[in-house]
Amino acid sequence: MQQPLQPPQPSLVPTHYFPPAPRKPPLNLAEWPIPSFRLRCEELEHPGAKLFFEHVNPVELLREAVLAVFTWLYTEETVPRQVETVVLVLRAFDGAAHATGADVYKEIHFNLDHIANSASRVKDEVFGVLVHEMTHCYQYNGLGTCPGGLVEGVADWVRLHAGYRPPHWREGGGDKWDAGYADTAFFLVWVEARYGYGIVRNLNLAMRGRRYDDVMFKEQTGRKVASLWKEYRAYVESQGQGQKEAKS
Ligand SMILES: [Zn+2]
Question: What is the pLDDT of residue 21?
């Protein structure tokens, strides 16, 4: 069996941040609530389907995505145990992918056109998108009150830590802390490097059964999220300056 629970490869961690703290893989997989997996491909003749089955082992894919979420957001004590089934649906639609479902049953819809358009790096893109969507299947969202940008940022933060950073992601982007996706993910990486590893995990757990409030950042870091963002922007600016100076 493949061992997916390694810390991210150094080359995939943003180089000018501190690398995330390495986490030990859970040794006893029997302790972790791996759901059962199903696959539904609605267009077997689609070029994306052909690429998918050429490059990806679906069980390995789904298992690795679940274990990435468990590794980076939970411990054996805190991991949600209610999800029984995750169904991966391959079909063509607008957008890359999305996750739906209730507590026990989840579906991840993956656009076959997106897979076909990622032909040069099918496996990395499919695993990366799946880790992001699987995070949505398991993350807490403050009873639906978490800012969408933070929901998406945490999903990309897990993707980043799992080692599936796509080539187009750039550190230091975004005009607000909850701009979402990679912009918020890199902000969260910086917050942990500056104020302590485990903050993202704790933020996620804080939103279990409790409405989202900016004060959650203060509880974890001692600083308001607006102050954190200001400090991050100053850091990014200083790095940009440093890079320019290094080149000239
Ligand atoms: Zn998402």
Answer: 52
